Amino acid sequence: MIERVRGQAGAAIFARVAGPEGEGRRDRIHGTPGPRRFAPGDPVWRVHGDASMFVGGIRALLLQSLHPLAMAGVDQHSGFRGDPWGRLQRTSGFIAMTTFGTIEHADRTIAAVRGIHERVTGTAPDGRPYAASDPHLLRWVHVAEIDSFLRAHDRYGSMPLTPAERDRYVAQAAVTARLLGATDVPEDVEQLRETLRAYRPELESTPAARAAARFMLIHPPVPWTVRAPYGMLAAAAVGLLPRFARRPLGLPWLPVTEATAVRAGGVAVTRAIGWAMAPPARSTT
């Protein structure tokens, strides 16, 4: 009975994140023979395969929204409001393919995304032009993601990384960022911190960023049956945001609550997701 319930919960979570083609994509990613850039024991496998990615993904979207040019591209070209789960499924598929897939499949996926980026151009509300293929914007999106994934794994991951493994994770994640067209990508944790610090003068509050935060945190497109666990994931994500990112998005700074109730809720829900999505135990009889 427990295994059946876990299987049903895991299937529901996987279907929501991976989409209707998720099963076939997972089989193709993990079942296709061929050389891969990364191995199962690598830090990038451990981080990107952990349930803490649910927290890290929300934090990354909130942090990324603070760059007005990156947010303009999302707001004007992405269907994240009309089809937020579709966008999540495409993003999770990209991360899975470039992390766990063969080099051939990963490179094909990267080339497809680069082609999309070439067509995403426009003008931000402040009059500045932007292009999704801009190496500077690509680097911002990358460092916001990797910092978020790493911090979420540090706090909620099932197998925390050592300092050397954290540096190696940043270096491994940089491979895909460079192939996407980003330049001057950080290779270790200290460089990651410095790169994020260098972007701070470019970050600001915009109506689009605040609207995106409200959409993700207050009016999320999730069924009422999963509102409570999603709320815990969202609270955990906000709890990992740096203080400088809170005010521009209209988010509170509650250090005591975040260190106690929010952290406990984040641990509970990520462990539950990890339990639900784990392969069922095989009978030995």
From TrEMBL:
Residues 45-267 form the ER-bound oxygenase mpaB/mpaB'/Rubber oxygenase catalytic domain. GO terms for molecular function: oxidoreductase activity. Signal peptide: none annotated. InterPro entries: MPAB/Lcp_cat_dom. It comes from the Bacteria. This is DUF2236 domain-containing protein.
